Amino acid sequence: MSSDAIFFATLSTVRIGLFKYGGIFLLCAGTISCILSLFVFSKKALRKNPCGIYLIGSNIANFFTIYMSIFETTLSVGYNNDLTISNLTFCRLSLYLTFVSDNLSSYFLIMASIDRMFLTSKNALTRQRSTSHLAYISIIIISIFWLIFHIHALILPDIIQLYPMYFACYFPSGSYLTFITYYLIIRIVLTLTLMIIFGLLTIKNIRNIRQVHILPSIQGTGVSTQVILNTPRSKDQLLIRILLLDVVVYMIFNLLLVIILLYQQIVQYRSVSLYESQIITFITAVATFSNYIPCCIGFYTKLFVSKTFRSEVKNSFLCN
């Protein structure tokens, strides 16, 4: 066997093993993470908070992603058992729910970032926009938008023969496949950009809040007055920290997918060697796996990083 053949076989083995064992790990870890996160955020003190409402919505969307996308991909790649090629309706429904849940999860995080930006603003009128009522309305509008926007996934995808003796639930080649590819790139880049912008604005507002303003001394008294800007309550501070952590985790684990999608568009109109094709396939699999990680580890990262969150989790269990 040639060195190239050995190399290709190694890449294939690693790719299969990544989903065969890593996929099962993500399924188990993600399920526990979503359940525990929903348990904590559903407590009265947090579920009445606008940011807590968005995080509840994001975790529900993550739960759908785990069982409509990660589960199917794990079976397909790791165990060579693709359920979506046995039934066209299930094929399309799986892609539709994957699109919707992935978008809902990320855009609920964006809305939570906007809410924290409102809350930490120096402007009192802006702070008043951080309300549970607005959170519920936003969740409904965003959900309806993505449910309608992705209706194409219920109509156009098909069970396609990609290689000899290899079928997959996929998008037909041509303009539709090009649209899907560019859509994925734009969506991820836009999502990352919005998260960065609103995350930085929130951090900027927090720094402004922490500033202590010294007013001029009253004439004749020589006494200066310190005025501290409105400071978020402890629950709000906790939600700000764990939200920013979620945003950072999302950005880190989605960056590789953006890069490989952009590269695929660059090389799509030129001939690609077998060696390069195998490398692209392998990196795409790793990027896909990396893309799944944020929706499966949210609870653990918060638990590991935030002492306040650990105390909140402990109190949630003790109260029951």
| Assembly category | single chain
- Treating each run of at least 4 consecutive H or I residues as one helix, how many helices? 11
* Main beta-sheet annotation: 2 strands, antiparallel
Strand content: 5-15%
- What distance separates the N and C termini? 62 Å
Q: Widest sheet: strand order?
A: 1-2
Rg to the nearest angstrom? 23 Å
Order of helices and strands: HHHHHHEEHEEHHHH
Q: Topology of this structure?
A:
Elements: H1 3-41, H2 44-47, H3 50-79, H4 88-119, H5 124-127, H6 132-149, E1 158-163, E2 166-170, H7 175-210, E3 212-215, E4 225-228, H8 234-267, H9 274-292, H10 294-305, H11 307-318
Antiparallel strand pairs: 1-2, 3-4
Helix pairs in contact: 1-3, 1-9, 1-10, 3-4, 3-6, 4-6, 4-7, 4-8, 7-8, 8-9, 8-10, 10-11
Q: What descriptors fit this protein?
A:
11 helices, two-stranded antiparallel ribbon, 75% helix, 320 residues, single chain, mainly alpha
Task: Please describe what this structure looks like.
The protein has 320 residues and is mainly alpha-helical. It has 11 helices and 4 strands, in the order H-H-H-H-H-H-E-E-H-E-E-H-H-H-H. The strands form 2 sheets. It has a two-stranded antiparallel sheet. It has a two-stranded antiparallel sheet with strand order 3-4.
Can you describe this structure in just a few lines?
With 320 residues, the protein is mainly alpha-helical. It has helices at 3-41, 44-47, 50-79, 88-119, 124-127, 132-149, 175-210, 234-267, 274-292, 294-305, 307-318; strands at residues 158-163, 166-170, 212-215, 225-228.
